[in-house]
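Fill in residues.
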């Protein structure tokens, strides 16, 4: 297999893939914030939540659902800020994955990544990193 990357480029490709995978796992896991509510351990992230309260109309009280899952709809995410964070972080993860997978393909396909493509990919990766960290929107 011929590669269009230098040794530094190959290291960049593999580190990019590891960072993109870690970013995506962090995005999908509901352990951003941990706490307790109604004497139960709860956790949530922008995309998922674990052990959350719901109103049981038959009992006329709030009960804890002790399971993990996605929010029922985009509007079910607790606030507008969390919705924005979900979109921006998801966009950042997508950009990081795009660059990482392109770089990994560059390890196997000759002349896929030129100097210009590498610089553009680096810029896209920087933007994806900023979005994933929340700093891209001043968060």
């Amino acid at each position: 297999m011929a590669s269009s990357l230098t040794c530094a480029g190959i290291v960049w490709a593999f580190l990019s893939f590891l960072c993109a995978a870690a970013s995506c796992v962090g995005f999908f896991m509901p352990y951003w914030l941990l706490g307790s509510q109604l004497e139960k351990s709860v956790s949530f992230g922008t995309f998922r939540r674990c052990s959350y309260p719901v109103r049981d109309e038959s009992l006329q009280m709030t009960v804890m659902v002790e399971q993990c899952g996605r929010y029922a709809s985009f509007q079910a995410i607790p606030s507008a800020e969390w919705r924005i964070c979900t979109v921006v972080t998801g966009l950042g993860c997508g950009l990081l994955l795009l660059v990482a997978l392109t770089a990994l393909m560059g390890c196997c396909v000759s002349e896929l990544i030129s100097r210009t493509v590498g610089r553009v990919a680096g810029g896209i990766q920087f933007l994806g990193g900023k979005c994933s960290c929340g700093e891209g929107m001043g968060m």
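The helical segments are 7-28, 80-108, 115-133.
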